[in-house]
UniProtKB/TrEMBL annotation:
Residues 10-21 have a biased composition (Polar residues). The keyword Membrane applies. Its EC number is 7.6.2.11. This is Spermidine/putrescine import ATP-binding protein PotA. It is an enzyme of class 7 (translocase). It comes from Pararhodobacter aggregans. The complex is composed of two ATP-binding proteins (PotA), two transmembrane proteins (PotB and PotC) and a solute-binding protein (PotD). The lineage of its organism: Bacteria, Pseudomonadati, Pseudomonadota, Alphaproteobacteria, Rhodobacterales. Residues 1-21 are annotated as: Disordered. NCBIfam families: potA. The gene is potA.
Length: 388
């Protein structure tokens, strides 16, 4: 199911096709869920969503990931129809969402605080969205049974929410969002209140259910592991904008800017100035004078300031494994942490004490200890020269 995205970068979808005198983008015409230049202000002054362009194909599992306050919930609320966009348009299956009454939108929703009705039994909780949609009694019973079985809660129909654990309640909330067979499900930090083990189990259940039922899902979280493991694509939010929209592997391997690089996974950052650029390779003079190899991503000419980003597992302490002309960097081992399957080293590099190198615990690996002076390097493509 992965990699079914229509496009990976909102800036790329500039192909305009004329329709009846006005111009809409190709993505807008094709997507099942479309945000088209959406802006939102609550107070008429500050934009909390600044310029949102997003097009999701049917069946996609898309996660909005970002720090608190970056506008994720606001986007979900606009899609659900509880908030209106200040500018721009949101479309569901080609139709502007404002024109569709809420109960006809076919959207199921799950939130962090379950929001089950406490005075109703589990079965009654699931019956409610069906009654609202005018579905008859025998149909309701069949659908309720099927939805509860789906989340392994078939035996609990007669209990009340208070008689269930947090995880069970969250499963019921999921069943209630799915019971009327919505085409689109929105989930806002639905697992935030659960402990780690249950959360990981539910992550697996939710993605399986969504994919098996072919449901289009917009999932909101501030947890990057959750986003990477569950999603077909992830939209990284910061300050009301999508910083990068890409499949998990692209986000991790090819972060588009410094924000994404530091937000997703662990990453070493070093500041410097571009010295030479030659195609997809460049050299960067770090502020302490060290010269390193990098790949130009957000820099285009010598003299530009940059912040480079290198993953700890891409740092090489054996120069034999690098190209002969690779630039090597002096480093001192400050700390060695044995982590079982991996070794982790904190190094002093280019005047910084927080540089991390990590490698697999394997027979042929050199054991290093604090105080060792070593030389490290990396392949240019593993070191991304991003915005300063
Ligand atoms: N109902 C509201 N009225 C006014 N401001 C709001 C409201 N809801 C959210 N905000 C503000 O909008 C910004 C984005 O919030 P939100 O969408 O909840 O972010 P997130 O879900 O990413 O944490 C925040 O600055 C928040 O304070
Ligand atoms: Mg939120």
């Amino acid at each position: 199911m992965r990699g079914r995205g229509v496009f990976t970068d909102p800036q790329e979808q500039q192909t305009k096709v004329p329709t009846g005198g006005s111009y809409v983008s190709q993505a807008r015409a094709d997507g099942f869920v479309v945000f088209d230049r959406v802006q939102k202000s609550y107070d008429g002054e500050i934009l909390v969503v600044k310029d949102l362009n997003l097009s999701m194909p049917k069946g996609e599992f898309l996660t909005m990931l970002g720090p608190s306050g970056s506008g994720k919930t606001t986007c979900l609320m606009m899609l659900a129809g509880f908030e209106t966009a200040t500018h721009g348009e949101i479309l569901l299956d080609g139709k502007p969402i404002n024109n569709i009454p809420p109960h006809k939108r076919g959207i199921g929703m799950v939130f962090q605080n379950y929001a089950l009705f406490p005075h109703m039994t589990i079965a009654e909780n699931l019956s409610f969205p069906l009654e609202v949609r005018g579905i008859g009694k025998s149909d309701r019973e069949a659908k309720i049974k099927r939805a509860l079985d789906m989340v392994q809660m078939g035996a609990f129909g007669n209990r009340r929410p208070a008689q269930l654990s947090g995880g069970q309640q969250q499963r019921v909330a999921l069943a209630r969002a799915l019971v009327f067979e919505p085409e689109l499900v929105l989930m806002d930090e639905p697992l935030g209140a659960l402990d780690k083990q249950l959360r990981e189990h539910m992550q697996f259940e939710i993605t399986n259910l969504a994919h098996n039922l072919g449901i289009t899902t917009v999932y909101v979280t501030h947890d990057q592991t959750e986003a990477l493991t569950m999603s077909d694509r992830v939209a990284v939010f910061n300050d009301g904008r999508i910083q990068q929209l890409a499949p998990p592997e692209d986000l991790y391997e090819r972060p588009a800017n410094s924000f994404v690089a530091q937000f997703i996974g662990e990453n070493n950052k070093l500041d410097g100035t571009v010295e030479t650029i030659n195609g997809d390779k460049c050299t960067v003079r770090l502020d302490d004078g060290t010269l390193i190899d990098a790949q130009p991503v957000n820099v285009s000419k010598a003299g530009e300031r940059t912040r480079v980003s290198i993953r700890p597992e891409r740092v090489e302490s054996n120069p034999d494994r690098l190209a002969r002309d690779a630039h090597l960097v002096e480093a001192e081992v400050l700390e060695f942490i044995y982590m079982g399957d991996t070794f982790r080293f904190r190094l002093r590099v280019a005047g910084r004490d927080d540089f991390v190198m990590k490698y697999r615990n394997a027979q042929d690996q050199r054991r290093l200890s604090a105080g060792d002076k070593i030389r490290i390097g990396w392949r240019p493509e593993d070191c991304r020269a991003l915005d300063a």
